[in-house]
Design a protein that fits this description.
single chain; about 600 residues; mainly alpha; Serine Threonine Protein Phosphatase 5, Tetratricopeptide repeat; 2 domains; 26 helices; disordered N terminus; binds flavin-adenine dinucleotide; binds magnesium ion; nucleotide-binding; FAD binding; flavoprotein
């Protein structure tokens, strides 16, 4: 009866459709994405969609007639390539897919409006997909162990499955659930599919500690072998997806009831839409772009020609929430390359995924990976405290339009390009303000759609020269004026996010304080009144910070092995310094720096 009702609902289009949007209300970028998506072949059969990880390799004798399973979604918010979900389907006669709001799950402890919305849409998408096969997503509030105890008692649950959350911050939660299962004699299956390799396996192959350099990491994983290929969409036909009579009390709560307030009115103008459906569509577009780039003789178009204003093409928020399987990403790129039989190595692209793996693995067993103190891979640097400057940086009021535009985009849209992250992180730390990377990290955690606890911290440590860099021998820090000019040559990006500067001539746009008063008046923007004066003088700050770094180096007695991996190539790769910008000019680190002559 219920199923019939649901089918009717589905046919009459009553279901929430997260991907349908009012085109008129969409900003231009969004319309571009929609157009790109229309070009995507919807029925594409992925080469990689063949199941090669037979979920646990269980045979029939393992099947229990009365297995009542719960699949616990946390990250891994997808149905495709979800081995623990497949295990639940294969083993259970009855299955309840659930999500528990415990105040921390999927990074909700520090989480701004955009990421909440993205998470919510990802959950809605799962619920909608489950509806299509006769099920629903159940949601709960509170401590997972309390919820599971209740489910064991009231619903007779005897199997719990979930995807491994590899970062140490989730360990206590997951260990508690595993202990509970053991105590209650409940089967518990945890599968590795958020990462290409199991960070614990990499660590144990390396003698019990994470490989400290990127090169070592690559060596260790090469001994494990290639990542598993992804599995496809699950087949729910063998399992009953029950919907209890009082389901309403478990349905996804209304967004307004759980989400924080918008931090900026422009967040209404939504650019990123969460969920597996969207992830898979964007992925197809991305693969086509990469294939076109391969054919044209290069790869990573968004790195080669950074498009700061382009439509959302990044998959990092989808990888972060697990709406897209990282194994699908990895293998599809490799297969596309093989199909094209091109001489360009796809490893440039998949190298980015390896950085992701590396940071996840580096944080294994290190609960202090997100701070300087108590974190043995992080160099102790004597950062300054300056709440006022930190606040100005956070709000995009530093007086450097390139930096401010990046920070405004972060707050409004939730995703900023790698070069923008690089610019603002360098400016806050070793470049200009000499403020601790931990302060910047907190801001990124709150606003970034793709904020991962360990990846974000790892990147901040790198950029602030706190780890992963040649010991504090960072290249000259990026100049907030030159870097901006190179990345935003027409000033379109800055004008978009700082409308107060919309009429400032390009010549002064990146350093408007240099504009003569008459020019400022004509542009309708008086510096110091309508737009701030710079909060630091870059040249002087960069020079003094460099001296502080030199003093720090001198005070270090030991060599730090984790600080010596980077060579020129690795730094370029990490910094995403394109060889050319828009196919024209050569772009070197020096071009983007204030040459201090030291
Ligand atoms: P692609 O070129 O498509 O790369 C593919 C995937 O590889 C990305 O989606 C991402 O999952 C991964 N990746 C790419 N670059 C890196 C990198 N440097 N480190 C680790 N993984 C990488 N990325 C996050 O996913 N989460 C974060 O919290 C995060 N915080 C960052 C903080 C700072 C200060 C900086 C400088 C970078 C940070 N990055 C983070 C890395 C990077 O900026 C984004 O992953 C990237 O911009 C995503 O764009 P893309 O999807 O087009 O990348
Ligand atoms: Mg991506």
């Amino acid at each position: 009866m219920k199923r019939q009702q649901r089918e009717q609902e589905s046919q009459s289009g009553h279901l929430t459709d997260t991907t349908s949007t009012d085109e008129d209300a969409l900003p231009q970028q969004e319309a571009k994405v929609q157009k790109l998506e229309n070009d995507v072949p919807k029925s594409h059969e992925s080469l990689t969609d063949m199941p090669t990880r037979p979920a646990l390799g269980l045979d029939n004798k393992d099947r229990k007639k009365e297995t009542i399973a719960v699949h616990w979604f946390r990250h891994g918010l997808r149905l495709h390539d979800n081995p623990s979900l497949i295990d639940a389907i294969n083993l259970a006669s009855e299955l309840y897919p659930i999500f528990i709001f415990d105040g921390e799950v999927a990074g909700t402890k520090v989480c701004g409006f955009n990421r909440w919305r993205f998470l919510y849409e990802s959950l809605e998408d799962i619920d909608r997909k489950l509806k299509e096969v006769g099920g629903r997503l159940y949601t709960f509030n509170g401590d997972p162990c309390t919820v599971f105890n209740q489910l064991i008692e009231e619903w007779g649950v005897n199997l719990i499955t979930f995807e491994q959350d590899p970062e140490p911050i989730w360990q206590d939660r997951d260990n508690a659930v595993k202990r509970l299962c053991e105590e209650r004699g409940i089967r518990c299956i945890e599968s590795v599919s958020h990462t290409l390799w199991d960070p614990n396996e990499v660590t144990s192959r390396n003698g019990g500690t994470p490989p400290v350099t990127y090169a070592m990491f690559q060596e260790v994983v090469s001994t494990i072998g290639l990542p598993h290929r992804p599995s496809g969409e699950p087949d729910f036909s063998s399992v009953k997806l029950s919907i209890c009579d009082n389901f309403d009390q478990f349905a996804l709560p209304h967004f307004q009831d759980i989400a924080p307030k918008m931090e900026h009115p422009d967040q209404e103008r939504q650019l990123w839409i969460g969920g597996e459906t969207r992830a898979l569509e964007l992925f197809e577009v991305r693969v086509r772009r990469e294939a076109a780039a391969f054919k044209a003789g290069y790869c990573l178009p968004n790195q080669y020609m950074p498009d700061l204003l382009g439509p959302p093409m990044s998959l990092s928020p989808y990888l972060r929430f697990g709406c897209l399987s990282v194994r699908k990403f990895y293998w599809r790129i490799h297969d596309t390359y093989t199909e094209l039989n091109n001489t360009i190595s796809p490893s440039h692209l998949t190298a980015q995924l390896i950085w992701r793996e590396y940071f996840y693995t580096m944080s294994v067993g290190n609960k202090n990976f997100d701070r300087m103190n108590g974190n043995n891979i992080c160099l102790k640097i004597d950062w300054s405290e300056d709440q006022e400057k930190l606040q100005k940086w956070t709000e995009g009021e530093t007086g450097y339009p390139w930096i401010d535009a990046c920070m405004k985009q972060l707050k409004v849209e939730g995703w900023i390009h790698q070069v923008a992250r690089h610019a603002v992180a360098c400016f806050l730390t070793r470049g200009d303000l000499w403020i601790s990377w931990e302060d910047g990290l907190k801001v990124f955690y709150q606003y970034l759609l793709d904020a991962d606890w360990s990846i974000c911290a790892g990147n901040w440590m790198w950029i602030s020269s706190s780890a992963f860099e040649k010991v504090l021998q960072c290249p000259n820090c990026f100049c907030p004026v030159r870097y901006g000019r190179r990345m935003d040559p027409n000033g379109e990006f800055v004008r978009r996010f700082l409308p107060v500067l919309v009429n400032m001539p390009l010549r002064y746009l990146f350093e408007p304080w240099k504009a003569p008063l008459a020019v400022q008046e004509k542009a309708g923007c008086i510096i110091g009144k309508d737009y701030p004066m710079p909060i630091v003088e870059h040249r002087a700050a960069a020079s003094s910070n460099r001296e502080k770094m030199n003093r720090t180096v001198q005070s270090l007695e030991e060599k730090f092995s984790h600080c010596t991996p980077s060579n020129e190539v690795e730094v370029r790769e990490f910094s995403w310094l394109p060889e050319t910008i828009r196919g024209v000019e050569k772009c070197t680190a020096d071009d983007l720096c204030e040459i201090l002559g030291i």
